[in-house]
Design brief:
Shape of chain B: elongated
Mean pLDDT of chain A: 88
Helix content of chain B: 55-70%
Oligomer: heterodimer
Number of helices of chain B: 10
Low-confidence stretches of chain A: none
Order of helices and strands of chain B: HHHHHHHHHH
Largest sheet of chain B: none
Helix content of chain A: 55-70%
Number of helices of chain A: 4
Distance between the termini of chain B: 53 Å
Radius of gyration of chain A: 21 Å
Low-confidence stretches of chain B: none
Strand content of chain B: under 5%
Structural class of chain A: mainly alpha
Strand content of chain A: under 5%
Order of helices and strands of chain A: HHHH
Amino acid sequence: MKLERLSCRRRVALLLDYLDRELPAPERKLLARHRASCRSCAGLLASLERTVRTLHALNRAAKPPAAARRALAAKLRNI
Amino acid sequence: MITERDLIERSRSGDAQAFSCLVGRYEDRIYRLAKHVCVGLSAEADDVYQDTFLTAFKKLKYFRGDSELGTWLYRIASNLCLMRRRKKSSEPFVPLLDRPRDHDDGEAHQFRDWSPTPEEAANKKELVEKVTGALAKLPMDYRLVLTLRDVEGLSTAETAKILKLSAAAVKSRLHRGRLFLRDEFERAFGAKESKR
């Protein structure tokens, strides 16, 4: 498969699956090679990787407020 | 040691204490989802958190176990968020999301390095506020997909199952949402390529 021959839309779809690690190993290797030689795709992937990494900052311990926990416990007791 | 299956079985027969153990295992994840999807309205997040577990306790007899309990709880919470949105008339309108941007940004976009600085990353409260603020500018459909995929770390298939969407629809919203957030983060964290 030659990435350069694919339509823009299909190529981006493959890049996104690559970004999300949802490509089979052979295609993943192909994309990794393409990334090393294509400035445009490398730039897009790097910017999206930064976006995902930054968004992941929200994955922190998020305890429900004590009042909400108490309210839930009381409602469960009364069911 | 009591397994999750045991706790589910006991909860099905009305054992509230067993169900409390299940709540303890999943409440952080469910609250985090509610908080990011109902962003800016803490009372809504609290309500979604409580209603998710109350609904689950009442409907546990219908849980067939063909998916993870966590996936089932995410589905209940997502549906509750969507139901609350339907009751409200206003949603952020983001015109860029209506345009077919799926295949742009190849040559056109200037790829600046806007990553949070080590100082910004260390000041997590401020970082989280900026990221939450950017997420809040998106419609709920997009916030749900981005939160499940990129915050909670679920796969495309799991996200599609929870939201009852096709994998293609999940990927489309994910990509458009990420492009939107990338531009927002770029503005929030500034272009720093000249300093590096």
